[in-house]
Amino acid sequence: MEKITVERSIWINAAREKVWRAITDAEQIMKWWGGGDLWEIEKLEVGAGVKFGEADDQLLATIAVLDPPAKFSIRWPPQEAYHNIEVFTTYELTEENGGTTVKVSETGFEALPEDIRQKRFDQTAKGYETVLAGLKSYIEGSAQ
Q: What's the pLDDT score for residue 144?
């Protein structure tokens, strides 16, 4: 089966290292992610745990790829909230035009049942548009 991937990107007027810190530091993530969700990254290394969600309903994941300041990937194992499929979320940062292009991709949708696949794909795509806009606003509007 062909891989089905959500991909969204945005250009941010900031150095790649600043963007990198914003996407890998849990305290900063909570400032731009939106929705009031909690983030926890136990350690910035491959295999380290990541928690995301509401305090009483968190999704558990691990860092799959860590290539500072270029690539950060999270592996979300099968969990009820993801219809028991494995999902990978990857952020790629590229220096471009005096700033940084952030590309986020999420893979694993091909494993979803057909009757919910498109809806989940569309929700995720729209969600990442919102999340990336929040990241851009946070970084360009702050003096970190």
A: 46
